Fold:
Amino acid sequence: MIEIGRELIIKASEGDMNSFEEIYRLSSGFVYNIALRIANNAKDAEEITQEVFIKVFKNLKSFSFRASFNTWVYRIAVNAAINFKKRASKEENKRVDYESRLNTELVDKGKDHASESLVKFLLSNLSPEHRACIVLREMEGLSYEEISNVLRININTVRSRLKRARQKLVTLRKEVVRNEL
Structure:
């Protein structure tokens, strides 16, 4: 994500809609990608992105420049995506059977699409907290310290969540391979 200038943030916080639109233009793709990786669904990612920018707009006046704007937006995006997934899982009454879901996603699709579907499937089987850590570390390339700042959790919690998430992914991948044979 491109670093947003202090002047642009101040103008937007004072109600300048052109400045806010510029902030949106510069950072919406980044927010959408985080939301997509955590939510695993384009429609949900769009909804989360809208929710994030509503929160950014409402809270921009309180942004104090103690952290970077990017870190602040990361935190809002990750928390919004996690909360969205928690709400969605509470509303979901039934869970699709593991094997039928895997078969539906992988049958009659090209190798690249199958790999992408497999990644989405594997990520969807992680808790939102573990998924957020994996996405921020492995897909966004953040350091443990940056993840700790974004999620506002202890760095040791980041380490343990990443370890558990990786273990779960390895186990799931082994199941997928076993089921494909």
User: Anything to note?
Assistant: The chain has a mean pLDDT of 84. The chain has two domains: 1-93, 95-181. The radius of gyration is 18 Å.
